[in-house]
């Protein structure tokens, strides 16, 4: 069986894939351009399987040879970019979280587990804050490296199993494909699985869920050795390119990915690869010089483009020219890195097996050490006492943040770490989204002072009110929120009666593009209609709790602070020359009249609900907006850690606001 050594159309396909990714990342159109990564995965599966079967067939395969070649091909260039990015991170990115998150991700990426690091911090790939991580793109490199580590073992075991070697390998590949695709379909739809928090993030980042894409490429490599009528090859290549184009044009960030929707670009890439296994006019189109040259530098371009885009957006927010220039710089760096780093290390064979370990080990060590230095420096605020004082407040999260603001159904949680106060005291339950979680210190301190017990059971992005949320950018969020409401309601019915403190970011929910589901099943998009439904459902929720013998307190949504280059203010937007001169200069203020105008509809709706039910309320607007000016910083205290959430230190100061409503007599 003959396995081809070179395929120029594959270089062209790589060039096309990296172009799609770069254009999408740059925000220059093609919102579905991120499917280029899926194309890369298919190409990797195809190429690696071709190499494995060829080497196994000729008897030259050894694990050391395979892994050494992969390491020398990938790690030196990655080390150069990782170290350079670490230097840029230290100099240019904010010490208020971005440096720490970036350096931690970079160190993990150097070790080949960048995807696992991003999943572990529940980093939504498309969220504004995560998009400032200069190592965000390394998740796909982690997936590939983990694939390269495990996949050869499976193929070699299958190859040595019997005489029909290629057929056995194909059967193993089919098993991998079916198993991984089934898992992908389940978790991409945000189904809750044991031991899996943030299922949609698990689906996006983790290798077991992505393995089916490599398997499709691998199976295509096996099938490419079979000859069919010549007319099928150009038809397959054409159909494959059309499928990729359709995905790029129709898929948007936030789709259930890589679930069933990913089948289109993955199969499309496989068809292009299979179609090019015999020379034809369509595949020849992929061998045009610009695409091949782009394919030749695709790996280095992928490495460089994202950190340079992050720097451009950091220094010149919303400047399209800066973004375009950064892409040009990335392309120049990619050419140099390919010529002077990738090619020499890829083609230079070590004299002894032990010398073959030197380059990979040195590459990994360089990246880890560089990122560790940035991580240590940023945690110490680079020796600046004023930055350290600000970071201590801005980087703090509410007590119990990691365990109490969860995506695990409340009845399945171990709530001991989310419970404070007198075990025998009348309970207080803090429920809602992260705008409920932000009051943890205030509710805890007020309740424990009153001799009561506090239980916090919140869910990110989900109020304890069912408005039939429909989020276009995150289709599974509505299902998550409905489950949170249903499961928590059932759980609460089994608990000792006490006081329920409700809170949610009602302003954001009503003002954004999220839709609510009306009783007749139609979607409500107008703010007025959504606010009215919110008020009705809030009144129903309060009345239901009161009927079940719970007292209810509504913590009103505090003022929110819009941002510049992002929807909401965040201290990472502040330029470092301001941060290190006086961090207070990063604070923002706005007239109270602006807050009242934005919150008018939702406050009216909530006021009607409170009047109808007689529930108590806590409103901190007067404290945030003194003298008719709302601010995120006052007298040495950061009131907010971002535009939507108060800081834990300020939450502690607000305990007095909850004293009356949580007094023992209630």
TrEMBL record:
SGNH domain residues: 414-659
InterPro entries, alphabetized: Acyl_transf_3_dom, Acyltransferase_3, SGNH
Keyword Transmembrane: yes
Acyltransferase domain location: 9-338
UniProt keyword list: Acyltransferase, Membrane, Transferase, Transmembrane, Transmembrane helix
The keyword Transmembrane belongs to this UniProt entry's keyword annotation: yes
Spans traversing the lipid bilayer: 12-28, 34-53, 74-93, 146-162, 169-196, 202-223, 232-251, 257-276, 322-341, 353-379
Molecular function per GO: acyltransferase activity
Xref: Pfam families: Acyl_transf_3, SGNH
Domain of life: Bacteria
Name of the protein in question: Acyltransferase family protein
């Amino acid at each position: 069986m003959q396995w081809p050594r070179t395929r120029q159309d594959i270089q062209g396909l790589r060039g096309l894939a990296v172009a799609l990714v770069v254009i999408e990342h740059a925000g220059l159109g093609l919102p579905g351009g991120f499917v280029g990564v899926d194309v890369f995965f298919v190409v990797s599966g195809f190429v690696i399987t071709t190499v494995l079967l060829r080497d196994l067939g000729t008897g030259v395969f050894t694990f050391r040879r395979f892994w050494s070649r992969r390491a020398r091909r990938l790690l030196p260039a990655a080390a150069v970019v990782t170290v350079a990015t670490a230097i840029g991170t230290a100099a240019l990115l904010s010490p208020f979280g971005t440096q720490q998150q970036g350096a931690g991700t970079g160190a993990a990426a150097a070790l080949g587990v960048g995807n696992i690091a991003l999943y572990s911090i529940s980093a939504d790939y498309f969220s504004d804050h995560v998009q400032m991580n200069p190592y965000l793109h390394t998740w796909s490199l982690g997936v590939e490296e983990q694939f390269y580590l495990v996949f050869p073992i499976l193929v070699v075991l299958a190859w040595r199993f019997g005489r029909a070697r290629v057929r056995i390998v194909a059967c193993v590949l089919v098993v991998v494909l079916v198993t991984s695709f089934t898992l992908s379909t389940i978790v991409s739809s945000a189904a809750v699985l044991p031991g899996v928090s943030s299922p949609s993030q698990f689906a996006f980042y983790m290798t077991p869920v992505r393995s089916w894409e490599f398997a499709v490429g691998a199976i295509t490599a096996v099938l490419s050795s079979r000859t069919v009528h010549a007319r099928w090859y150009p038809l397959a290549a054409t159909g494959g390119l059309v499928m990729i184009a359709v995905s790029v044009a129709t898929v948007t960030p936030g789709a259930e990915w890589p679930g069933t929707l990913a089948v289109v670009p993955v199969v499309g890439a496989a068809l292009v690869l299979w179609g090019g296994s015999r020379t034809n006019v369509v595949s020849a189109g992929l061998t045009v010089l610009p695409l091949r040259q782009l394919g030749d530098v695709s790996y280095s371009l992928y490495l460089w483009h994202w950190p340079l885009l992050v720097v451009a957006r950091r220094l010149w927010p919303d400047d399209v020219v800066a973004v375009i220039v950064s892409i040009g710089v990335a392309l120049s760096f990619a050419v140099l890195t390919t010529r002077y780093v990738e090619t020499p290390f890829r083609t230079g064979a070590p004299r002894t097996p032990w010398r073959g370990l030197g380059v990979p080990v040195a590459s990994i060590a360089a990246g880890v050490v560089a990122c560790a230095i940035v991580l240590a420096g940023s945690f110490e605020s680079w020796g600046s006492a004023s930055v350290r004082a600000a970071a201590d407040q801005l980087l703090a999260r509410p007590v119990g943040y990691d365990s109490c603001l969860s995506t695990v159904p409340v009845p399945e949680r171990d709530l001991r770490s989310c419970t404070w106060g007198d075990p025998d005291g009348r309970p207080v339950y803090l429920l809602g989204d992260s705008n409920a979680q932000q009051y943890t210190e205030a509710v805890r301190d007020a309740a424990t002072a009153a001799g009561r017990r506090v239980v916090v059971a919140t869910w990110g992005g989900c109020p304890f009110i069912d408005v039939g949320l429909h989020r276009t950018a995150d289709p599974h969020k509505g299902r998550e929120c409905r489950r949170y409401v249903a499961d928590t309601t059932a759980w609460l019915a089994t608990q000792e009666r006490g006081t329920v403190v409700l809170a949610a970011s009602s302003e954001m929910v009503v003002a954004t593009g999220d839709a609510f589901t009306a009783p007749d099943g139609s979607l409500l998009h107008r703010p007025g209609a959504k606010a009215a439904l919110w008020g009705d459902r809030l009144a129903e929720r309060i009345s239901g709790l009161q009927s079940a013998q719970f007292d209810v307190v509504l913590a009103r949504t505090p003022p929110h602070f819009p941002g510049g280059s992002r929807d909401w203010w965040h201290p990472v937007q502040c330029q470092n020359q301001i941060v290190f001169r006086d961090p207070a200069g990063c604070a923002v203020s706005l007239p109270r009249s602006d807050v009242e105008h934005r919150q008018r509809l939702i406050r009216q709706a909530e006021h009607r609900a409170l009047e109808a039910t007689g529930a108590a309320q806590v409103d901190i607007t007067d404290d945030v907006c003194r003298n008719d000016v709302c601010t995120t910083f006052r007298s040495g205290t950061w009131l907010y850690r971002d535009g939507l959430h108060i800081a834990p230190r300020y939450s502690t100061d607000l305990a007095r606001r909850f004293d009356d409503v949580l007094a023992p007599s209630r």
